[in-house]
Amino acid sequence: MGTTSFLTRARGLLRIRNQLVRECLAELLSTFVLILITLSSSAQKVTSFETKGDLFTTYLAGALAVMVGIYIAGGISGAHMNPAFSFAMCLVEQFPWWKLPIFAVVQTLGSFISAGAVYLLYYDAIWHYSNGTLTVSGPRETASIFATYPADYVSIANGFLDQVIGTGVVILGVMGIMDTRNKGVPKGMEPPIVALLILSVGCSMAANCGCPLNPARDIGPRLFTYVAGWGPEVFRWVEGRGRGG
C-alpha cells in the first residue's frame, strides 16, 4: 500500500504538464532511438568487416528504427524526428512555424547524443578496426559510421539533387499514408508501413550519398565526429575515401 502511494506521488511530481516540453522530450527520445539503432547497425557492419552485417541490414535497421520512433512519440509530438518533415508540415499548415526551429534543434541534439552513445557502445571495435587512427578517408575510415559521405563520382550538384529527391519521396509517401482522405491503412499500422517506405527508398536511392534523408540525422553525428577526434575534415566534400558511401 505504501509503495503504491509512493509511486503515485512520484508520478505526480514527475509528470510534465507543459505541452511544448512534452513534445520536445518526445522528439528528443524518438530521435535518439532512431539514430542509435541506425548508427549502431552501421558500426556493426563496418567494424566487423561486414561479417556481421551488410548494406541491407543497415537499411532494414534504419527503417525499423523509424517505426520504433513513431511508436514512441507519434501520439505526443507526431514523431517528426526530421527537420525536413517538420518543414513540410509547416508548408501544408499542419505545424506552426514558430515550433520549427525548436524541433530542429531538439532533433539535432538527439542525434548528437545518439552518436555519442554509439561511439561508447562500439568504442573498442572502432579503435581496433581503425588501427588507432580516426580518419574520414582511406580503407579503414570510420567517419561513415556516423555521417553519410558521397561516392567518389558524385558532384555537389548531383548530391544535392539526390537528397532533395530522396527526402521528397519520403515526405510525399508519409503524407499520403497519413492522409485520412486517402485509402489509408489500419489504425496503428502506420509505423510499419512508413518503415517499408523508408526501406524501399534506402534500397533504391542510397548509392550516391548513403541516403540520410534527414538533416538532423547527418548534422548531429557529424558534429559529434568533429569534436570526438575526426576533425574538420568531416565537413568537407571528400573524394577518394576508399570505401565510399
Automatic annotation (TrEMBL):
It is a multi-pass membrane protein. One of its GO terms (cellular component) is basolateral plasma membrane. Coiled coil: none annotated. One of its GO terms (molecular function) is glycerol channel activity. Aquaglyceroporins form homotetrameric transmembrane channels, with each monomer independently mediating glycerol and water transport across the plasma membrane along their osmotic gradient. Could also be permeable to urea. Also participates in cell permeability to H2O2 and H2O2-mediated signaling. In skin, transports glycerol to the epidermis and stratum corneum, where it maintains hydration, elasticity, and supports lipid biosynthesis for barrier repair. In kidney, contributes to the reabsorption of water, helping the body maintain proper fluid balance. Homotetramer; each monomer provides an independent glycerol/water pore. Could also exist in other oligomeric states. PANTHER family: AQUAPORIN OR AQUAGLYCEROPORIN RELATED, AQUAPORIN-10. This is Aquaporin-3. It comes from Dasyornis broadbenti.
